[in-house]
Structures are given as C-alpha cells and as structure tokens.
Amino acid sequence: MTLSISREDMRTGILKTESEAPVSDAEMRQAVRTLLLGLGEDPDREGLRDTPKRVVNALKFLTSGYHQSLDELLNGAVFHEDTNEMVLVRDIDLFSSCEHHILPIIGRVHVAYIPNGKVIGLSKIARICEMYARRLQVQERLTAQIADAVEGLLKPQGVAVVVEAAHMCMAMRGVQKPGSWTASSAMRGVFADDPKTRQEFMSLIHHAPTFH
To answer: What is the pTM of this model?
Structure first.
C-alpha cells in the first residue's frame, strides 16, 4: 500500500491511501505473529494467543490522529472576540510514538497565541495537540504541526509552542539514558519577532501555578 500526503492532508490531519484495498486487520495480526516467531516466542501459548489482536488495536488507537481532521475536531468552536492579550494553555499531557522505533514519547505541551479578532475553545487546543501526537512522530515535526495548525485556524498575531518530552527509545535502548528529556519550540509571528513577548511566554510556562 502506498500513501499520498499533500500539504492539505498535513494541515487537516487526514492521511489518504491510493490503494482501494488497504491492509486488513487479519494481515496486520499475522505480521505481529511473525514478529513473535522471529523473537523466538510461541504465539500460540496462552499469554500470547491474543497479543496480535491487542497490538493491532493498540497501534490503531495510538495512530488515530491520521484519520482526524481539524474541521471535525473544532466543531465550530472558533469565536470572534475583540482581545489582543496572550492566551496560554500549559502542561497539556503528551503521549506519542517515535516513528523510528514505535516506542513512547511522553511529555507535555505548552501552547500560546495572541488573538487577532478570533479565539478558539480552550479544550480544542488540547485536542489539536492530541490529534498530531496520535501519529508516528518526531518531536520537531510535532511541535511545528501544532503551531501551524493554530496559526492556520486563527490567523493570530503570533503562536508559540514548546514541547518537553522523554523518549523511550533513548531510555530503554540505544544510549539507555533514563531521565533525559528533549525540549523543542516553534515560534510564529510576534513570538518570533518580539523578544519581550517571547520572554513573557517562556517565563509563564516555567512558573509553577499556585493551584498545583
């Protein structure tokens, strides 16, 4: 099966296939079974008998963002509002999967924007982060996709996104460095152009809220 990804697909979050008949669940389960055999396991033993089905279901859930669109996700929750003060949603839980090893990426996202006549329902910002996180990802691309989505939807004066995450591909294998974490940022508009605005955002995301 070949995949066709256009710029519009990347914006909306929809992944289209050129094939009329995508790989079936049965074929995917057989692939997991083959992996178990290759690892020296017995896929017919009691503990592994249903593992291929569980793995396929889990992977479909963890990559469900490929089949979501921003329009469906927003459901009209963009509103006209005459304000130009920073809106910040911080400490959004992040659960994604590394595209190189399909191992977890776990962290948090901070998203801010300065409106230019339109605002978005606050929960929708978390939904946007979730949609892009539920794909096979690299952190740098995930950060940019969130920023570009908010910028495209609202045309604000500026957007800022910071992602802080731990990568299990570094903690569990390879260099095996548990406790390390990676920060990435994407700045658009005034956040890129105005150091004071950018510094205000950075100071807010690293200030502990009093209600925690």
So the answer is: 0.86
